[in-house]
């Protein structure tokens, strides 16, 4: 079935982005103190002047000072912990541009199970902002955020799964699409329905697929209508009902889904669930082809080649088959070669153009894995 960075500032960061689901944390290192500030081991109680100086600098909006003061307070074993004050200082450092503060703040939040913290860390890992760019780590964090109810993280995780640099994992995709569907993404309902229909990443369950397609279709997702129509047409996961399939295809096609037009054309061409009407079928294929669907171009080209539902027009058929071949419809590539070769044999085409089209069709069919295309390509003598 039917296919969305900021660089780190000059800060010295010694952080590694760890899995949000593990016990590891993103632990930024504080600024290295100079000799005048004393040793960090003395902490705030042993170096009140240092804490005071950092406090003063932080109040003057020195983000690095805010971060260092927060670290000092956390490391001070001789004073009661003021976690709210420490978090406020990390936030002030983050807001002031010290990415170490952002990392610490979001890491702590994520470790507490706060989805927004995991989502923020995921965005940093995806973009490489303040940490090493790591799409796989970003995906793990997006998944945790998604599990925590942050729906936009579900979508962002799916974008990573569908992109480069992340290992493909149908089970992980199914979980994310399921969350997104539950959150109201109708397109995600259709996609997770496809996974259930095919048994990819989940146990095959066509009845479950039908329910997901119906939810998507009722909400206005045209792909859901077309996919549900396929199940009714074949009786998979639902009782076979060709008339119901036709109605679903019509709904999708009328609203602009080219696959709905293709499948409706097939039903009309064969008189399944509706009166047979080959002229109407060709008109439906033409609508699909005009919308950019290569399968519609293939079926319309086949009609012009044979004079089925339209007046026979082999020149028009060549154009349509070539268009479908460009869309990687292997049957169109092979048929293009056969028709071009036949027109040459009958002296009905320009010799150079006929040779070019025949060779192109067979070559492309071969590239797409068609053994007959490979045989014809090797035997073809221009």
Helix content: 55-70%
Helix/sheet category: mainly alpha
In DSSP terms, counting alpha (H) and pi (I) runs of 4 or more, how many helices? 20
* Average pLDDT metric: 82
Quantity of strands, as a count: 0
Shape: elongated
Order of helices and strands: HHHHHHHHHHHHHHHHHHHH
Please indicate the percent range of residues in DSSP E strands (runs of 2 or more).
Answer: under 5%
Radius of gyration: 31 Å
Q: Give the low-confidence spans.
A: 1-46
Distance between the termini: 37 Å
Biggest sheet features? none
Q: Would you give an account of this structure?
A:
This protein has a domain at 13-29 and 43-161. 66% of the residues lie in helices and 0% in strands. Helix 8 packs antiparallel against helix 9. The chain starts with 42 loop residues before the first helix and ends with a helix. It has 20 helices and no strands. It has helices at residues 43-46, 48-59, 63-75, 83-95, 99-111, 115-127, 135-147, 151-162, 170-182, 186-198, 206-218, 222-234, 242-254, 258-270, 278-290, 294-306, 314-326, 330-345, 351-367, 371-379.
Write the layout of secondary structure elements.
Elements: H1 43-46, H2 48-59, H3 63-75, H4 83-95, H5 99-111, H6 115-127, H7 135-147, H8 151-162, H9 170-182, H10 186-198, H11 206-218, H12 222-234, H13 242-254, H14 258-270, H15 278-290, H16 294-306, H17 314-326, H18 330-345, H19 351-367, H20 371-379
Helix pairs in contact: 2-3, 3-4, 4-5, 5-6, 6-7, 7-8, 8-9, 9-10, 10-11, 11-12, 12-13, 13-14, 14-15, 15-16, 16-17, 17-18, 18-19, 19-20
């Amino acid at each position: 079935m039917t296919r969305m960075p900021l660089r780190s500032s000059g800060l010295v960061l010694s952080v590694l982005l760890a899995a949000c689901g593990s016990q590891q944390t993103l632990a930024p290192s504080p600024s290295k103190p100079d000799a005048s500030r004393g040793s960090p081991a003395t902490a705030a109680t042993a170096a009140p002047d240092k804490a005071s100086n950092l406090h003063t600098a932080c109040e003057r909006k020195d983000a690095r000072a805010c971060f260092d003061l927060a670290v000092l307070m956390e490391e001070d074993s001789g004073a009661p912990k003021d976690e709210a004050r420490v978090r406020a200082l990390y936030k002030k450092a983050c807001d002031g541009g010290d990415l170490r503060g952002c990392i610490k703040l979001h890491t702590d939040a994520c470790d507490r199970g706060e989805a927004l913290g995991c989502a923020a860390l995921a965005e940093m890992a995806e973009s490489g902002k303040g940490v090493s760019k790591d799409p796989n780590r970003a995906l793990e964090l997006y998944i945790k955020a998604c599990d925590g109810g942050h729906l936009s993280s579900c979508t962002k995780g799916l974008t990573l799964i569908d992109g480069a640099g992340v290992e493909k994992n149908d089970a992980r995709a199914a979980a994310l699409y399921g969350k997104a569907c539950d959150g109201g993404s109708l397109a995600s309902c259709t996609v997770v329905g496809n996974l259930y229909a095919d048994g990819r990443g989940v146990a095959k369950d066509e009845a479950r697929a039908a329910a997901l397609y119906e939810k998507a279709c009722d909400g206005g997702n045209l792909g859901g209508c077309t996919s549900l129509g396929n199940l009714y047409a074949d009786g998979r996961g639902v009782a076979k009902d060709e008339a119901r399939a036709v109605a679903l295809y019509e709904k999708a096609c009328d609203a602009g889904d080219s696959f709905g037009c293709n499948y409706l054309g097939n039903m009309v061409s064969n008189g399944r669930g509706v009166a047979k009407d080959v002229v109407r079928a060709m008109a439906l294929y033409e609508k699909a082809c005009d919308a950019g669907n290569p399968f519609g171009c293939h079926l319309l080209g086949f009609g012009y080649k044979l004079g089925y539902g339209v007046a026979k027009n082999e020149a028009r058929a060549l154009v349509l088959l070539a268009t479908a071949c460009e869309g990687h419809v292997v049957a169109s590539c092979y048929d293009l070669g056969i028709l071009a070769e036949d027109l040459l044999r009958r002296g009905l085409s320009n010799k150079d153009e006929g040779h070019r089209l025949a060779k192109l069709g067979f070559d492309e069919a071969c590239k797409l894995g068609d053994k007959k295309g490979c045989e014809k390509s090797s035997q073809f003598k221009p």
